[in-house]
Amino acid sequence: MGSTGAAIFAFVAGLGGALQIAVQSRLSERVGTFGALACAGVVAAMTAMLVLLYAQRSLNPLGKALSGPTWLLLGGVMSAVIVLSITVAGPRIGVVATTALLICGQFAFATLIDRYGWFGVDQVAIGWPRILGLALLAAGAALTLMR
Fold first, then answer.
1. Domain range holding 116?
2. Same structural domain, 61 and 101
3. Which of 9, 56, 68, 120 is the most exposed place for a label (fewest CB within 10 A)?
4. What is the pLDDT along the chain (147 residues), one digit of tens a residue?
5. Residue 117 and residue 124: Cα distance in Å, rounded?
6. Which of 92, 109, 130 is the last residue of a domain?
């Protein structure tokens, strides 16, 4: 997949994120917050296993991942945190505000990850345009809380 395909895929995932907030909110009304989290986790795990089996005809990458450094599993843990947070926040503050705050948090932490080169990524300097962008993003996220 080239960079254009990756960009389109990321955009589609963003659309799916908004859908996920709305759906998880309704599911939590039906089965409770933690039931909705567990259901989403099971469906995600089953989907991921099917994709892995289809793409690589093997579950070996799963075993290799689980036998590696523990910190590499943080993505899975954070997936559960994200799903739990949108399940709780969505019905209380709305889909737009939940999405805006989620993205604001992602950008803020991504800036630190880039700045310090955490998790093996290349370091990226933080200049005033980036700080201004983050401040405007935070202001926009705060404004979405107003009804």
1. 94-147
2. no
3. 120
4. 888 999 999 999 999 999 999 999 999 999 999 999 999 999 999 999 999 999 999 999 999 999 999 999 999 999 999 999 999 999 999 999 999 999 999 999 999 999 999 999 999 999 999 999 999 999 999 999 997
5. 8
6. 92
